[in-house]
Structure formats: structure tokens, C-alpha cells
Amino acid sequence: MKFENNPIIARLSINTSNSKMKKTSVSYPLILLATVLAALLAPAPRVLAADKIKIVLVGDSTVTDKSGWGLGFKQFLNDGAECINLARGGRSSQSYMREGRWTNALAMHGDYYLIQFGHNNEPGKPGRSTDMATFVANMNQYVDDARAEGAQPILVTPLTRRQWDKEHPGKIKSSLAPYADEVRKIAEQKHVPLVDLQARSIELCESLGPEKCLEFSPMKNDAGRQVYDGTHLNTMGSVMFARLVVEELRKAVPNLAPVLRASISGVNPVLQTRVFDEIVTPDGAGDAVTIQEALKRVPEHHGSPWKILVEPGLYHGQFMVPSALDRVWLMGVDAASTILSYNLNVNEAPQGETYQFNPGLVVAGNDFLAENLTIENVSGDHGQALALRVDGDREVFRNCRITGWQDTLMMNNGRDYLTNCYVAGRVDFIYGSATAVLDHCEIHSRNGGHVTAASTPENQPYGFVFLSCKLTGDDKPWMDSQGHMANQRKTPLADLGRPWRPHASVAYLDCWMGSHIAPAGWNNWGKVQNESTARYAEYDSTGPGANPQARAVWAHELTAEQAKSYTVENILGGQDHWNPAEE
């Protein structure tokens, strides 16, 4: 995201009234000076696709979505930024590196890395504890490595444990104070922006008192007894302490201010809408290690949506949401790094299974929602190979990548809504009999082929409707008669659709089309009689592939008046007046 350099705020107000803050070994004027210098020296963030700033969180359980401030932090980001939380429970500054997690985090190519460790460096944690010199060396390496990748590191002092001082009622005596002191020193020495969460969290907890702090403390099992957890956070605490992080960030890194919300009221706060019933992590840090394991635990008659958080990772295999399970929400963190992958095609189906039951992900339940996921079939271009089959009604896909070659996406029944998605394939890669709206999606043709193969029933008013989509395609080098590569490139042509069944209905409205779209636009699948039954239409297509004069004469160019009826509400509303924007 390109931002003009914000002027450094003349007055940085950090409350130093807390006695613990005054006792730190680094004076706060120096810290403030370091913060200003860090902001001035910070490299400009890299520009991402869609111009979003990428913020990566690195740390222990007190930063995670499950039991830390990470989930609340995401709520404070507007559409100008995305957050990838790679924090993991039970990790110290040393074990996080040793397990290769820091290498994986750098591979995300973040613009900013928020780094918080200390809890698991404390003594008494086998395989994780370190001496202070090792902790300092680790934290310096995090800073140096992030900068070497062109990113901006931001150090975060560890969230306090709620350790109440018996000799001074209402005061916290934090065992993490020495680690916080060292992080402050590193921030000053290396001119790194600092979020002093240790000081701010102590200040907040002491202002509330021990009893009020129990409200944001989750329960844990201690020798068979349920007791309050004085380290981790429930969803209320996630928001409370994320707010402190955001307040400090706004001051320490002015370039981030444009993407930080001042308030999350009215934007679905985590406390109300982001409580997850299951968390899937490939390393076992969550409730399940596979998506199917999490799906097996969904009760058949739950009321509100059953929300499953899928953390970044590669999840191999076939996953099914059965028809008995309605209102399942499968929610990733980042589509580029949260991948559901399947590698079989129709000819490779397991013995005893048929083609139609052999996609990577099958959604048979109603009111399903998926977001921030990649759903792929990597079998290759040698036969029908579904990535996703959708059989239920009122299904929503947001910010997903659905990729394959032939028959990538089957929308077989009911009503479906895809928004800000990327769908890629070659032959008939969007097909089926459902009513579906693809809204502001990128539709990518691999090596020509056919975009759609609708089988819309005759009495169904709408089939596949593409609203404000972008149609892109591959290009390949020309080869001369001797097989040598020429300087020119060619674009394999694809058509907008061919009718799998005679009354196929497909419409493109306000879509940009690349040069890979064949001038005639549409294909009758070798049957002239399909030309009198198929319902193919366009309205206001643009780009090099928009060619109304050359389009098949049996397709239709909608009038402005006709185009007005092609709204999400009219297409998908039905008798129950479904509005997917409300999901």
C-alpha cells in the first residue's frame, strides 16, 4: 500500500505513571526517541497485490488467535491491510526458530513483522527455556533477518502474566519484566519500533483490579480442577489487549495509522462474531490437525454457525461437509498459505468410488461459508478433476482461490455466491445446474478451453451470473516449423461457455475480458439445436476480449433495462429472500 509519509507526531503520550514502568532500566525519553527514529528509518512497505499491507504476527500463545490478542488485532485492521498470524503456543524465541517457523514466516514476504517472545523462555520449560543471553541473541536475529528481507520488524514486549503481588495488593509483580527490559534495550539500540505491551498490560490490569481481570481470563484444568488462567486471554481479552497494541502501533509506526481502526464498533467485533468452535492447525497446536477431524465433531443440530478456523498450512486429502451439517463456516487466515489440496482425477478415484464423489472438497450441507482458503486439485490436465463440488443451498465463498484444470468447480444445486475469488481451469471449469453469482472475481483460463458448462434447468430463471469480473488467460510463445521459439507470443483462445444441457443460462455483466476470449464468444457444443435453447448473454463487456460485433448471433446483448434485473438480490433471493451480503 503506498502512503505518503506521515509527519511524526510532535507529542507522543505514553502514560508513565505506573510504578513498574518507572523502575525499568531504560529511560522512557530514550525509548520515545528510539521510537521516533525507528519510524523515520522504517523502509517503505512493499506493494502487494490489491495494494494491501501484509502484517505477520510472530510469537507464543499470548499472540495466537486461540488464546492471545491476535484475533482481536485483526478486527482493528481495515481493508487496506491483511494479517497473517503465525504465532504458536508453547514456543520460545529459541524453539520457534529451531522448528523452522521463523523461516516459514519470512517466506510469507510480510511488510511488517510484530515479534513477541518471553513467556516460554522463562526457566522450568524443558526444550524451550533459555538463558537471557540466548533470548537477546534470538531477538536481535529476528530484527536482522526481517530487515534483510526488506521488511520492517516491530518488537513487542511480552504480555504480562496476571501475577498479583501479595505484599502490595492490586499491584502486579511480573516475572516477565527482565525480558521486557531487554526488548526495550534492543529496540533502542537497533532503532526498531516498540510496542510496550508489558507496561501497557500491567497498567490496564492494575487499573481494573484482580476481580475484573477474571472476566477476560479463560478457564483451564489444573490437577482436575477448573481454575482461572492468569496468562492467556478469552475473546473479550483478545479485543482489550489488541486495542493496546494498536494504540502503541499508531504512535510507533505512523505509516500504519491509515489501516488501523480507531474503534471496532459496527465492524463485527471478535467478541460477538469471531468466536471459533474449532481451530485446525497442522502441527497439533489447535483442536484438530485435519479439517475432516474438525468436521466430525460438528453436532448435527447446532443453532448458530459452527465456525472452524483453519490456520495456515497444506491440508492434503478429501474433505466432506455432509448434508446433515448445516451452517458450517470454514474460515482461513490467508488464502495463499491456507491450502486444501487434492490430487486425484476421475480415472484415479479410489476403488468403489465414482467420479461424482471424488472432488477435493464436497459441500452438501446448507448455509456453508468458506473464506480465505485455497481449494485446489493438482492432478493436472489429463481428465476431469474437481477441486470443489457444491450441492447445498445458500453457500458463500469469500476471498477463496479455487484452482484445477478440467471441471474445477461444480456448482450442482441450490444457490451459491462467490465474491473476490479466483477461479482457474481449462475445460468446463465452472459447471453445473445451480444458480450462482460470481461477484468481482478473477476467472482465469489455463491454455484456452471453455469457461463454463452450465446445465441450468429450463424452468430456472438464472444459471451462472458474472458481475464485474475479470477474465484472464495464459499466453504462450510461438513455435516455428522447426520447433524453435519465436519472438512473438500467442494466447490460446477460450470461449465463455458451452451448454452442458440445452437450456444452459450464463450471463456476464460489466466484465473485463482478456484477449484470450474467442471473438464468437460462445460454443454450441457441436449441436445446432442448442443455439435455440441456450440462454447466453452479455452486457457492457470491456477489454480486448469484448467483441460484440463478432459474437455468435444466437447469444444476446442485454439492454440497459434488462441488465437492471441482474442484481444479487433478484438472482439469489428466492422465496426466503436470502441476502448473502448479510452472512
Describe the protein in words.
- The protein has 583 residues and is an alpha/beta fold.
- It has three domains: 27-259, Rossmann fold; 276-413, 3 Solenoid (Pectate Lyase C-like), CATH 2.160.20; 421-476 and 492-573, 3 Solenoid (Pectate Lyase C-like), CATH 2.160.20.
- The chain is 21% helix and 25% strand.
- Strands 10, 11, 13, 14, 16, 17, 19, 20, 22, 24, 26, 29 and 31 form a 13-stranded parallel β-sheet that branches. Strands 8-9-12-15-18-21-23-25-30-32-33 form an eleven-stranded parallel β-sheet. The protein has a five-stranded parallel β-sheet with strand order 2-1-3-4-5.
- Helix 2 (28-41) crosses helix 7.
Q: What general form does the structure show?
A: elongated
β-strand number: 33
Classify the secondary structure makeup into a structural class. alpha/beta
Which fold does the CATH topology of the largest domain refer to? Rossmann fold
- Main beta sheet, described? 13 strands, parallel
In percent terms, what proportion of residues is strand? 25-35%
Distance between the termini: 28 Å
Topology summary:
Elements (H helix, E strand, L loop, with lengths): L18 H4 L5 H14 L11 E7 L10 H6 L5 E5 L7 H6 L2 H6 L5 E5 L15 H17 L3 E5 L20 H14 L3 E2 L1 H12 L1 H4 L5 E4 L2 E4 L6 H18 L17 H4 L4 E3 L10 H6 L9 E5 L2 E4 L2 E3 L6 E5 L5 E5 L18 E3 L5 E3 L2 E4 L10 E3 L4 E4 L2 E3 L5 E3 L3 E5 L2 E11 L2 E5 L2 E13 L9 E4 L2 E4 L2 E4 L5 E6 L3 E2 L9 E5 L2 E2 L21 E5 L16 E2 L2 H4 L4 H5 L11
Parallel strand pairs: 1-2, 1-3, 3-4, 4-5, 8-9, 9-12, 10-13, 11-14, 12-15, 13-16, 14-17, 15-18, 16-19, 17-20, 18-21, 19-22, 20-22, 21-23, 22-24, 23-25, 24-26, 24-29, 25-30, 26-31, 30-32, 32-33
Antiparallel strand pairs: 6-7, 27-28
Helix pairs in contact: 2-7, 6-7
